[in-house]
Give the backbone structure.
Amino acid sequence: MDDVRPERTRTAALRLAAAALALGAAVAAPSSLAEGRYGPLPLKPKDAELLEKSEEFDELLRRRGQVLEEGPAAELVKRVGETVAPPDPADEYQRFRFAVLRHPVPNAFALPDGRIFVHEGLLALLENEAQLASVLAHESMHVEGHHSILNARQTRRKAGGLLAFRVALGAAAPEIGYLATVLTDQLVSLLVIQAIIGYGRELEEESDLRAVERLLEAGYDPREMPRTFELLGEDPEGERPAPKPKWSSHPLAVQRAAYTRELLEELAPEIERAEREHGGLRVGEEDFAGAVHDAALRSVQEYLDADRPRMALWLSERNVERWPEDPRFRAQLGDAWRVLDARVAELPEERLTRKAKKQAARERATTTREEQREQRRELEGARERLARNLARAEEAYHEALELDPDQPHALHGLGLVEEMRGNDLEAGRWLARYLRAAPEAPDRPVVLRRLEEITERLRVAAAEAP
Amino acid sequence: MRPLALLPLLALLLPPLGLAATVQEHPDFTEDHFRPTRWLLLPPEAAITRGRVTDAEPMIKETEALEVALAREAKRAFEALGYRLDVESASAEALAADEELLAVADEARDRARETLARAGNDPKGIARGRFTIGDAGLPLAAATGAEGLLLLQSQSLIVSKGSKALSAIFNPLNLVAATRTRTQVVGALYDLRDGQLLAVVMGRDIGPVLKEPDEVARQVLDSAFGGLPRRGVGQAAKRKFREAAPPREVEPVPELGGASGEEVLAAFEEVADELEAPVDRDAATAADAPSPPAEAPSSPADEAGAAAADERAPADAPPSDAPSDAPSDPPSDAPAAPPVELDPSEPEPRLAPRAAEAETIEALLAAPPEERPEPELRVVFLGDLGETGLRVRNMAPRVVRVSLDRGAWRLVKAGGAVEFPVKPGGHRLLVADAAEDREIARAAVVASQGRLAIVELWPVPE
């Protein structure tokens, strides 16, 4: 690789600036108001590639073990999906299939061939079948309206700017070489997407509105839809940057809740008619809880493993209300309080500004978990917060033990709480009970090592005691 | 699908080098201190993109062939260095068939990716020992018997004919466009025993990855692993990193080459029992202890008059059921503790603390060990006597306050006792000075179903 001399770098910078201007001009042309196509849409050759990729993507997900093939959650999503999907797709290449992905982030997406995936994290968030139906109906509308295919076609039309930028960048920065080209493809794709964001957002709104009609046809209560958006908008960790609307293909959750609420008011007569026709509109709470029980457990655990205790706390509190007799959810609530450590449970307003979120994101990206823990324990009031959170954790664990005296996570959690307080003897007792209650637990070596360390500290303390 | 987290790492770690090599190593790895010899490979993740003139096409199904090739070549390359690389135990098929294994593998992999992304912002931090996945890898180690973890991610860019044609036009004009297909791989090596990120390696190749994935995998991994030390061969680490990296002591993990689980439990129980046992108290004598003393056990209704009416066992006489050889009997000439007035406005004992009490109790309980005073009383458990509840007897010649489970303070006069209604299970006892907010002793108490737990507070023998 050539050495970079200052004058070549200056020239490179000028070329880069010129390239950026060229791109800006290319993509700045206003796009026409976009709508989906809800009848048959013949495919162009490039469109067929999209469908091939859909199938390959599905296979990749299954190969990597990401798809939940069986179980109550998979059956629920399949059943509800098939209820809200169009019975007779307009095109042969569309076949509606529904699956659950192992992923904690609340999300769902549709591929152009009719495959629709729902993340476990979304199931853990929702409260009833009608909310799930609103999500699946929305995704079905993307398929029915051929949004992906139309979106891809528009992307290709705009990509003349992409060509100019790539060539200019190659000229501007030969020193960067291959790596820059790879990154540039990613970056420029983002820029091009930004130019057509208005198109994407309009289609999202269109899908929301048409989904309401589909829900009524299927007998589900569309009045659950605004609540779905409220749930999707929950952000206890304050990590979602307040998006500038033009950067998001999804309108803000709060906006979606608002405009669907307005729409539902306008559609009140239709809703009443549908209620009469169906003998009531289905909300479906009773079976929903049983089907998403395991998804709820796994989602909280994933958030705890990812050091996102506020999200875990928010979910756990709802889970305890929903399943009050299940000790595992109480134990998870204890875990959430314990992992919260010296953090506040609810972020104050000043930490939810865009600037504060960016700063927090930067710190998370550049510091390790251990460093973050040390830093927050030095903050003012940390000791009191830690004591309070551990007390709440302890309370939740004991509640779990009242339901099941040998609940393993509660026993383990109490041991960790006592260790965090410096009470080694108590900690050891609880951990020993845990090991006996759950001899096959996967984290057995972790706990045994911890117990070894506790024993050593106790020995030292005993030897040093007067 | 979880995103590939290594793209930022590619951008930030790859120096402007013609040849790829190991990027950074922890000095322990370089010097062969605690270097793992049995490694585990998680399923490699590959991404192949065809960069066309107007867009980029992800080549999804083609990744499978490359991922299989990467696993096979990684095993060959590692074994050539003298290490063992297990590519079966955590293969995609093995993980798909075992949900518990998938969960522990996912946890380790997610922590590894998170750590690697942070390492991308501070590559030299790898050599300083800054990055670790903590205990997240131990369950995976237990499940597979591995000591180390290898994570592999690769990215390939295929240049389309159109792009090559464009390059033929633009390159002579000194406007350079990409002309060659390239594959880059990043490998991260972790010690599963203590979670330390030991090394990051990178390799690249320009071969036709679609037509010859096996050959490309071979070349790119030979390029990446070419700088790794052979098994058993230690090299001198750079002094600045040796001095900056905190010392590692990788102890044998229980049940993974270390002590058995039963040995660990037994060792703890022995120490714990010693610490909790009363000094010179004979266990047989405790089991033969006579029935409860004639004095009426204090009940909530009696507490109000306790301060004035408590003429029970004087401070200088041991309770009637105390073993005669108890060494910590209060001396017979010990002065009686001064009476402490109870709050006359509270005829019934409060169980819920007031706000100020709760704060004090919380602060005392949360004090780290190094800040706590030496215990002035020893908490002694007498065993079960056939009723329910928890009774705390004060055998010391002083008035104390006790709080159970963060409840309100209750005064216990010298020789006196208080009872708490408790549910079976563990409970926390805190004993403090009657006048000052100062801890005297603490203990964890377990009350069994349907049995009375008796706790006695004795002075610590001199």
The two ends of chain B are 65 Å apart (CA to CA). Chain B touches chain A through 96 residues (CB under 8 Å). The CA atoms of residues 76 and 85 of chain B lie 9 Å apart.
